[in-house]
Amino acid sequence: MTVDEKQIRTLIEQWAVAVHRGDLHGVLTDHADDIVMFDVPPPYEGARGIDAYRDTWPPFFQWQAQGASFEIVSLEVTAGEDVAFAHALLRCGTPRELAEHPENRLRLTLGLRKEQGRWVVAHEHHSFPSVLPPVQ
User: Which secondary-structure segment (H or E) carries 96?
Assistant: First the structure.
Protein backbone atom coordinates (compact mmCIF):
# COMPACT_ATOMS: atom_id res chain seq x y z
CA MET A 1 0.00 0.00 0.00
CA THR A 2 1.38 3.42 -0.98
CA VAL A 3 1.70 6.41 1.35
CA ASP A 4 -1.16 8.15 -0.50
CA GLU A 5 -3.40 5.08 -0.16
CA LYS A 6 -2.65 4.95 3.58
CA GLN A 7 -3.46 8.67 3.94
CA ILE A 8 -6.75 8.23 2.09
CA ARG A 9 -7.67 5.13 4.09
CA THR A 10 -7.06 7.07 7.33
CA LEU A 11 -9.10 10.03 6.03
CA ILE A 12 -12.06 7.75 5.23
CA GLU A 13 -11.85 5.82 8.48
CA GLN A 14 -11.79 9.09 10.48
CA TRP A 15 -14.75 10.38 8.44
CA ALA A 16 -16.74 7.22 9.23
CA VAL A 17 -16.00 7.59 12.96
CA ALA A 18 -17.15 11.23 12.78
CA VAL A 19 -20.37 10.16 11.02
CA HIS A 20 -21.05 7.53 13.66
CA ARG A 21 -20.46 10.06 16.46
CA GLY A 22 -22.65 12.70 14.80
CA ASP A 23 -19.65 15.05 14.62
CA LEU A 24 -20.53 17.47 11.81
CA HIS A 25 -17.17 19.26 11.92
CA GLY A 26 -15.37 15.91 11.57
CA VAL A 27 -17.67 14.87 8.71
CA LEU A 28 -16.89 18.07 6.78
CA THR A 29 -13.13 17.82 7.33
CA ASP A 30 -11.17 16.94 4.18
CA HIS A 31 -14.09 17.63 1.82
CA ALA A 32 -13.72 19.98 -1.16
CA ASP A 33 -15.70 23.22 -1.27
CA ASP A 34 -17.21 22.07 -4.59
CA ILE A 35 -18.08 18.54 -3.45
CA VAL A 36 -20.87 16.71 -5.23
CA MET A 37 -22.70 14.03 -3.24
CA PHE A 38 -25.36 11.61 -4.43
CA ASP A 39 -27.12 10.17 -1.42
CA VAL A 40 -29.85 7.65 -0.65
CA PRO A 41 -32.49 10.32 0.26
CA PRO A 42 -33.28 13.40 -1.83
CA PRO A 43 -32.34 15.84 -3.21
CA TYR A 44 -32.56 13.78 -6.37
CA GLU A 45 -30.04 15.97 -8.21
CA GLY A 46 -27.52 15.51 -5.40
CA ALA A 47 -25.97 17.93 -2.97
CA ARG A 48 -23.62 20.32 -4.72
CA GLY A 49 -21.12 22.37 -2.73
CA ILE A 50 -20.00 22.14 0.87
CA ASP A 51 -23.02 24.08 2.21
CA ALA A 52 -25.51 21.70 0.59
CA TYR A 53 -23.40 18.74 1.76
CA ARG A 54 -23.44 20.11 5.32
CA ASP A 55 -27.24 20.47 5.22
CA THR A 56 -27.73 16.75 4.44
CA TRP A 57 -26.23 15.53 7.71
CA PRO A 58 -28.52 16.75 10.57
CA PRO A 59 -31.48 14.53 9.51
CA PHE A 60 -29.12 11.54 9.27
CA PHE A 61 -27.72 12.27 12.73
CA GLN A 62 -31.28 12.43 14.13
CA TRP A 63 -32.04 9.02 12.63
CA GLN A 64 -28.72 7.63 13.83
CA ALA A 65 -29.44 8.79 17.41
CA GLN A 66 -31.87 5.83 17.57
CA GLY A 67 -28.82 3.62 18.05
CA ALA A 68 -27.96 3.03 14.41
CA SER A 69 -24.58 1.71 13.30
CA PHE A 70 -22.27 3.22 10.71
CA GLU A 71 -19.28 0.88 10.40
CA ILE A 72 -16.87 0.17 7.58
CA VAL A 73 -16.88 -3.53 6.68
CA SER A 74 -14.51 -3.32 3.71
CA LEU A 75 -12.56 -0.51 2.10
CA GLU A 76 -10.49 -0.44 -1.10
CA VAL A 77 -8.40 2.57 -2.15
CA THR A 78 -6.65 3.28 -5.45
CA ALA A 79 -4.51 6.41 -5.66
CA GLY A 80 -2.71 8.11 -8.49
CA GLU A 81 -0.52 11.17 -8.24
CA ASP A 82 -3.31 13.71 -7.83
CA VAL A 83 -6.62 11.79 -8.10
CA ALA A 84 -7.91 8.72 -6.30
CA PHE A 85 -11.03 6.70 -5.75
CA ALA A 86 -12.24 4.43 -2.99
CA HIS A 87 -15.16 2.10 -2.51
CA ALA A 88 -16.46 0.62 0.69
CA LEU A 89 -19.25 -1.43 2.18
CA LEU A 90 -20.69 -0.34 5.52
CA ARG A 91 -23.08 -1.74 8.09
CA CYS A 92 -25.58 1.09 8.36
CA GLY A 93 -28.88 0.63 10.15
CA THR A 94 -30.72 0.45 13.43
CA PRO A 95 -30.35 -2.72 15.48
CA ARG A 96 -33.78 -3.84 14.26
CA GLU A 97 -32.95 -3.17 10.58
CA LEU A 98 -29.65 -5.02 10.88
CA ALA A 99 -31.32 -7.96 12.65
CA GLU A 100 -33.99 -8.20 9.92
CA HIS A 101 -31.49 -7.82 7.05
CA PRO A 102 -28.00 -8.63 8.37
CA GLU A 103 -26.56 -8.91 4.85
CA ASN A 104 -27.64 -5.40 3.79
CA ARG A 105 -24.74 -3.00 3.21
CA LEU A 106 -24.49 0.68 2.43
CA ARG A 107 -22.33 1.12 -0.65
CA LEU A 108 -19.95 4.07 -0.62
CA THR A 109 -17.87 5.40 -3.51
CA LEU A 110 -15.53 8.36 -3.13
CA GLY A 111 -13.57 10.41 -5.66
CA LEU A 112 -10.66 12.35 -4.22
CA ARG A 113 -8.16 14.87 -5.51
CA LYS A 114 -5.01 16.33 -4.10
CA GLU A 115 -5.24 20.05 -3.31
CA GLN A 116 -2.17 21.88 -2.05
CA GLY A 117 -0.55 18.60 -1.04
CA ARG A 118 -3.52 17.08 0.84
CA TRP A 119 -6.30 14.72 -0.20
CA VAL A 120 -9.90 15.99 -0.25
CA VAL A 121 -13.15 14.26 -1.12
CA ALA A 122 -14.59 15.82 -4.29
CA HIS A 123 -17.32 13.25 -4.97
CA GLU A 124 -19.27 11.03 -2.60
CA HIS A 125 -21.96 8.51 -3.48
CA HIS A 126 -24.03 6.44 -1.04
CA SER A 127 -26.52 3.76 -2.06
CA PHE A 128 -28.32 0.70 -0.80
CA PRO A 129 -29.19 -2.22 -3.07
CA SER A 130 -32.75 -2.03 -4.32
CA VAL A 131 -34.62 -5.08 -3.12
CA LEU A 132 -37.24 -5.74 -5.77
CA PRO A 133 -39.19 -8.90 -6.43
CA PRO A 134 -37.80 -11.01 -9.30
CA VAL A 135 -39.09 -10.19 -12.77
CA GLN A 136 -41.44 -12.91 -13.99
Answer: helix 95-100
Q: Calculate the alpha carbon distances from 11 to 14, 17, 31, 63, 88 in Å.
A: 5, 10, 10, 24, 13
Is-above-0.85 flag for pTM? Answer: yes
Q: Where are the domains positioned within the chain?
A: 3-121
According to CATH, the topology of domain 3-121 is Nuclear Transport Factor 2; Chain: A, (3.10.450)
Per residue in 33-68, pLDDT (tens digit) is: 999 999 887 778 899 999 999 999 999 999 999 999
